[in-house]
Amino acid sequence: MKNLNIIFYMILVFVVGFSIGTGFIITYEQSTFKGFWWKEDPIVANCYGSELLIGRARSSLRFWDDLGYKHKKYVHKPTIEICDGPKILEGYIIFRKAGDDQLKANILAFTTRRHASTQMVGSTIYFRNDTQNMDLLIEHELGHAFGFIHTDIPEHIMHPMYDQMGIKFWIPD
Hints:
Blueprint: H1 2-31, E1 37-38, E2 43-46, H2 54-66, E3 73-75, H3 80-83, E4 92-97, E5 109-116, E6 119-127, H4 137-145
Parallel strand pairs: 1-6, 2-3, 2-4, 4-6
Antiparallel strand pairs: 5-6
């Protein structure tokens, strides 16, 4: 009986600690416009396929390069090991097609990120079919991959609504 009490309290402490830690992370992410940084410039790989135009990808990366958020290189036709490997690969930003069940009707694309504390480890951008070449969409999703969150400032690249998104970028106060 004493062992069961010890196990119960250990589980309770773990659950409470995990909940508090998760709460801190969520609060941090919601209160910080740029919450995460890459230790080294990431490699960007196009696992979406040839439908994602090389010129669109490169101009989107140039947008962020010009602002100081660099990438190591862009690979338009990566190896099968990269594209069939883990969904998030360390040191990479990967473009992928979203599955039919991954996006709600009004979502054009989304970005997943893996980080350790404030350091980015890897990121994957999923695009709805036929949205991958829309103006500003790759730039916006790369913003998430570089660690930024949404802002409600009209014409800002990180605005969450596509029709209110613009080419402007600055870090809000």
